[in-house]
Amino acid sequence: MSRLIEIDDTAALPARITLGRADVLLIRASGGQVVDGPDLLEVFGPFVPAVVTDAGRIISPEGPPNTLFFVARKKGEALVELSTGDPYGAAVLKTITVVIE
Which domains does the chain possess? Predict the structure, then answer.
């Protein structure tokens, strides 16, 4: 069965993580990309948060995006570059290796 793995603190994220095929990785980051292995690990986002009101209207606060989803598609190793902090100012970059078993 696939897993949803949530990472809120990218500073505590190890340099290498292992996922199973079809696992979904949710990372709280303002941006990111798969720099090596885009056929192995698919990225969606970045997204801004939103909620549904009682009237069915979607509302979201102003501000930068803060969520990315990565879906493990095939076995192998992918290299991911994440951006945290203010995407319009002092962004912090972090690179991680994602192993897909």
Answer: 4-100 (2.60.40)
Number of Cβ within a 10 Å radius of residue 21: 13
Q: Is the pTM of this model over 0.85?
A: yes
E strand spans, the chain: 4-7, 16-19, 24-27, 31-36, 41-47, 51-52, 58-59, 67-72, 76-85, 91-100
Give the tens place of pLDDT for each residue, 44-80: 999 999 999 999 999 998 888 899 999 999 999 999 9
Residue 24 pairs in a beta bridge with 4, 71
- Dihedral of the CA atoms 28, 29, 33, 37 (nearest 10)? -30
